[in-house]
Amino acid sequence: xxxxxxxxxxxxxxxxxxxxxxxxxxxxxxxxxxxxxxxxxxxxxxxxxxxxxxxxxxxxxxxxxxxxxxxxxxxxxxxxxxxxxxxxxxxxxxxxxxxxxxxxxxxxxxxxxxxxxxxxxxxxxxxxxxxxxxxxxxxxxxxxxxxxxxxxxxxxxxxxxxxxxxxxxxxxxxxxxxxxxxxxxxxxxxxxxxxxxxxxxxxxxxxxxxxxxxxxxxxxxxxxxxxxxxxxxxxxxxxxxxxxxxxxxxxxxxxxxxxxxxxxxxxxxxxxxxxxxxxxx
Length: 281
Prior knowledge:
YmcC-like fold; mainly beta; five-stranded mixed beta sheet
């Protein structure tokens, strides 16, 4: 059963296969200062999130056999707060960390043991024809095995990580690189969700939206002390697809152009951010 699952995963990757040796660790983790990488988790239990990384420093060890990178993360995750009116609560965070890679001239076999079980070499249309080395394999006692898929891109690091827990019979994680910028070349659509905005959850009763669900118009009732509201509509992937400034105590948003589905309305009043979930029907 799990072998079939792995086969289906590989078959659905929309990649073209050609014969070539596996890349070296140095080829995969070849970054320069200023390079940017953005990944997101897309497992069922992960609402909008993004890890947005910029390489800020690069240096070698004294004997030149280990490469160090200092990375700056400007990122966020969200969680659903359940209640009568469920909403997304966003948590923004920043940090700096250091990663290092050794055996730079060695094959990826020395980095990921999954390549000993299976390996494929392909190009990715989604990542602008980047060279990809991947492995898909099983691990476990043999009855309810875990399934893994790992992919690495040339100069991109790890581009995809998938883990299906056989014990839980669910996807534990699925992380994908969706945007990168190297040497002035950009691939994908960057996540620009605003960071550093104070979230005030006790304003739940001060801003209301109706009707919900709606097919055409969302009404916004503003009972805060602020006359002007900056609104943005965010899709389920965390991408801002529309923004507008509203004035007065009550205003309307035209949602006719939106496709049917679930969206989140971000409403900024002063330094406060209120988030409302709505359904376009």
